[in-house]
Description:
2 domains; five-stranded antiparallel sheet; globular; binds flavin-adenine dinucleotide; disordered C terminus; Elongation Factor Tu (Ef-tu), domain 3; binds FE2/S2 (inorganic) cluster; seven-stranded mixed sheet; Rossmann fold
Amino acid sequence: MTTESEHAAMTEDGDPSVAGTAGYEVISNAKLSADVHRLVIRAPRVAAVRQPGQFVIVRLGPGAERIPLTIADSDAEQGSIVVVIQAVGKSTSDLVRLAAGDRIDDVVGPLGRPSDLITSGTAVCVAGGVGAAVIYPIARRLAEIGTEVITVLGARTSESVLYAEEFASFAELVVCTDDGSAGRAGLVTDALREVLATRSVDVVYAAGPVPMMSAVAAVTKPLGIRTIVSLNPIMVDGTGMCGGCRVTVDGVMRFACVDGPEFEAHDVDFAELADRLGTYRESELTASTHVCRGSA
Ligand SMILES: Cc1cc2nc3c(=O)[nH]c(=O)nc-3n(C[C@H](O)[C@H](O)[C@H](O)COP(=O)(O)OP(=O)(O)OC[C@H]3O[C@@H](n4cnc5c(N)ncnc54)[C@H](O)[C@@H]3O)c2cc1C
Ligand code: FES
């Protein structure tokens, strides 16, 4: 792990000589849909070593929450990383409001284990919502190393389909929307079933909401197709110390930040994960309400 925290330490020390230059610069912020933004952040050491499947933990400023975000892309020459953020609560809403030139106190990473990528055969990459940003680096690297990639990309409406052009540039793409406003109407699992009925598939990779990943696992398990999911439990430190991200996999407690975030889907206890994700719902709602009132 490379930790880019020197600037942050200087900020917290209040070193006046670094005023205005501490932290990680936001190079650009593009709105991809109503609540999803793509931020390019200067973080050269993370950009130099990160691999598909890995993430960063960002902390906007003093007292802010630590937010795990997948590294969707990077440019080692420019020294930048890309994160795609869906504003679902206070911290993510604060992050998507940043403008070019603004700074983030901490960007720590790359964290987590790189994806387990097959180097031949056929992979289906299934993404739901902002899970597209998690699946994109995996699918792209799979295509680069010679695996045939079929991407099934799901969203609520045409407006919230993410990264379709990017996926289409290297993979066969099936888009599904809940309302049929883009691609075919229906769930990603419907499209996945059709792909699996006609193609020989070696591995399925999936990222998205927990019920979606659980449903994908339920489709592939009876067919005996290896399936890898990227889990999104609550994370705090990202180093295996706090236990916040614990998940049960094959009956064993694992920490998603250091043992994952990818796991064999057929072994994951999704019911427990969904339950743990709901633990802080009330305080999250309170924080969101406060931010809305504060910004009204
Ligand atoms: C490895 C990993 C990679 C992720 N990658 C992305 C990404 O690329 N883009 C993206 O938009 N989101 C990503 N997430 C989810 C993102 O971290 C949460 O949406 C964010 O933390 C919500 O914070 P909030 O304060 O805005 O919302 P809150 O109101 O605090 O929470 C909203 C929901 O977000 C989840 N959540 C809250 N706090 C955390 C936390 N510390 N860790 C994980 N989940 C939390 C819970 O499900 C919660 O119900 C990822 C999560 C993990 C674990
Ligand atoms: S986030 Fe603390 S142990 Fe994983």
